[in-house]
Design goal:
The complex is a heterodimer of chains A (113) and B (112). With 113 residues, chain A is mainly beta. Helix content of chain A is 0%, strand content 55%. In chain A, a hairpin with a 3-residue loop joins strand 4 and strand 5. In chain A, 36% of the residues are buried. In chain B, strands 2, 5, 6, 10, 11 and 12 form a six-stranded mixed β-sheet that branches. The chains are: A mainly beta (113), B mainly beta (112). Chains A and B meet through strand 5 and strand 10 of A and strand 5 and strand 6 of B.
């Protein structure tokens, strides 16, 4: 298995632009998580899905952030409009069950200028 | 509320010496406990987990962790450190009906 695949690896954009981050979880995993990592705040859970349904989005910082999972093999995290304070590394992770170990992707390094 | 503390931002150890990375948690009930490692420009990788049973858990790359319920601690250990162990280490807890909560991370530097 190729593991959790995220794209792009790096994204540089200007303030106000729309950003879409993509994730392909490991096949057969029922849970998908989006995390954000910064030096100041560490690793923060943004949202997670179970069987493609959003379960907890309380970590989504603002309405500018949205996430979808149209099918079991694909999820997106969208920021519109983007702001410099959104600059961070965004990780997608999947898990076969809710309390099992997480498998992380390599992350997307987002820089908003 | 659940919380995880890693009291040391940085741990330095000489190659070949034993290492310990500390973790304490504040969670009600019987949580699952995890250690993850993050190498530069990579996602977190699972090292080991504790669910129940023996307080000493063995994991990947020669790492082990000791669960202490009375001290609510789950310290990561390795008998002999390698330079390649240098990375960022995260402790995490997961309680039933809750989400994963990660500690702030500890940077381990193994000096040759």
């Amino acid at each position: 298995d190729a593991g959790v695949i995220q794209s792009p690896r790096h994204e540089v954009t200007e303030m106000g632009q729309e950003v879409t981050l993509r994730c392909k979880p490991i096949s057969g995993h029922d849970y998908l998580f989006w995390y954000r990592q910064t030096m100041m705040r560490g690793l923060e859970l943004l949202i997670y899905f179970n069987n493609n349904v959003p379960i907890d989005d309380s970590g989504m910082p603002e309405d500018r952030f949205s996430a979808k999972m149209p099918n079991a093999s694909f999820s997106t995290l969208k920021i519109q409009p983007s702001e410099p304070r959104d600059s961070a590394v965004y990780f997608c992770a999947s898990s076969p069950q809710g309390r099992e170990k997480l498998f992380f992707g390599s992350g997307t390094q987002l820089s908003v200028l | 509320a659940q919380s995880v503390a890693q009291p040391e931002d940085q741990v330095n150890v000489a190659e070949g010496n034993p290492l310990t990375v500390k973790c304490t948690y504040s969670v009600s009930g019987n949580p699952y406990l995890f250690w993850y490692v993050q190498y530069p420009n990579r996602g977190l990788q699972f090292l080991l987990k504790y669910i129940t049973g023996d307080n000493l858990v063995k994991g990947s790359y020669g790492f082990e962790a000791e669960f202490n319920k009375s001290q609510t601690s789950f310290h990561l250990k390795k008998p002999s450190a390698l330079v390649s162990d240098s990375a960022l280490y995260f402790c995490a807890v997961h309680n039933y009906g809750q989400n994963f909560v990660f500690g702030p991370g500890t940077r381990l530097s193994v000096l040759p």
